[in-house]
Design a protein that fits this description.
Two copies of one chain form a homodimer. By secondary structure, chain A is α+β, with helices and mostly antiparallel strands. Chain A is built from nine helices and eight strands. In chain A, the strands form two sheets. Chain A has a four-stranded antiparallel beta sheet with strand order 1-8-3-6. Chains A and B meet through helix 3, helix 5 and helix 8 of A and helix 3, helix 5 and helix 8 of B. Chain B binds a DNA duplex through helix 9.
DNA sequence: GCTGCTTCTTACCATTTGGTAAGTAGTTTT
DNA sequence: AAAACTACTTACCAAATGGTAAGAAGCAGC
């Protein structure tokens, strides 16, 4: 799904192009349209890309860095997702259904992103069949990933979920601060620290 | 979102039409196309609509009854979702990405459904803008619902999750056998029985 | 009605996770 | 370098949930 090597592509646009061409055949005209529709954004560590209550106007391609989705609940930050480089993200409820976001999106490493505004996306969708197909399928892929996470919560212990991450996404354990990872796993930092010692 | 009264519509097609018209403006031609594309299926309690390993060829509208998604894991049935009447469902990974299903879908009450075959859906999508918009938005809606479930697992105890269901979908508690509900909540039937006594 | 089967409940104890508090280590600020 | 701050660890006990086993209640077939 995602390239395992980090930062093969120095240039963010090349990264995006490679991502799309791995899956779909793009004409030159399609790629030029896509390229022209995405803006490059570089942000420092801890920069917010979206705050609760705002409308999310952009679909992002994360070229380099690390992003977390979190919300405030019971006086604490609850980390819902973590997104790594070479993948797309947005706040779907806000972006697709035009509702105020109920989560914050924050870069927790300094990051390089490409973003496309909702109004430009409509044009790309209409003029590029490859993009249209891609947009359809990546939503299904994200749905599957979300269901997989849910399934792990339904039938695995916190320790098992941690071991799955350690096995399948060891980078997450290395790069994500323990408190965020614990929250993502649905446990306290103390519990994760204990689990980590046992393993 | 979903009509609270059960079985307002005696006729499944009227139910589907009302569901769509609540949200979108349909021309007569659009509705006739949609109506002609959906087949009616009536199944007895415990009938399988899809089994693990099969390709899911249909998108379903559940007019009456109750359906569960489950998989075998560690020698046990794990219930992933429960779907009630007057809503759509399919196995997204299999239907949209054309992969073998990793879950079973079973009617756990005798049910009345309308279903559309994947090959017919393409035509409807192309010829009905209202359907096309609907299909786009309901996927986002399902994504939001899945994320909400996930969030509850990340930050709520089993008891809290049970109380949320009791509050927001009391029908689920009344109609779903305890063992399925426990599995859906990610706990054992014994634990749910204990929780239920405490409340 | 009885029989057998499944579902649900209850009780017991083990394991997992939470809450509090304290201590250690690493970073940033000054 | 000292001070302040944050992240992480550890220890203690409490609460939540699991596993096993047994019994009670409901349901289907005869």
């Amino acid at each position: 799904m995602r390239r395992t090597e980090r930062c093969i592509m120095r240039n963010a646009y090349n990264g995006l192009k490679a991502f799309l061409e791995e899956r779909y055949k793009l004409t030159n005209a399609e790629w030029e349209l896509i390229r022209a529709s995405f803006d490059k954004v570089e942000v420092a560590k801890n920069t917010f890309l979206l705050e609760e209550g705002q409308h999310c106007e952009y679909l992002y391609y994360l070229h380099e860095g690390l992003v977390r989705f979190f919300r405030w609940e019971d006086g604490e930050e609850k980390t819902q997702y973590l997104t790594f480089e070479d993948y797309f993200f947005t706040q779907q409820e806000s972006f697709f259904l035009r509702r105020p976001s109920n989560v914050n999106i924050q870069a927790i490493e300094s990051s390089v992103l490409l973003r496309i505004h909702e109004k430009d996306l409509t044009r790309v969708r209409q003029q590029s069949p490859a993009w249209s197909q891609f947009a359809f399928e990546i939503r299904a892929e994200v749905q599957v990933a979300t269901e997989t996470l849910l399934r792990d919560f339904q039938s695995r212990t916190a320790k098992e979920r941690y071991l799955i991450i350690l096995d399948q996404q060891p980078e997450m354990v290395r790069r994500v601060p323990l408190k965020y990872l614990a929250s993502f796993l649905g446990i306290t930092p103390e519990s994760l620290s204990r689990i980590r010692k046992e393993v």
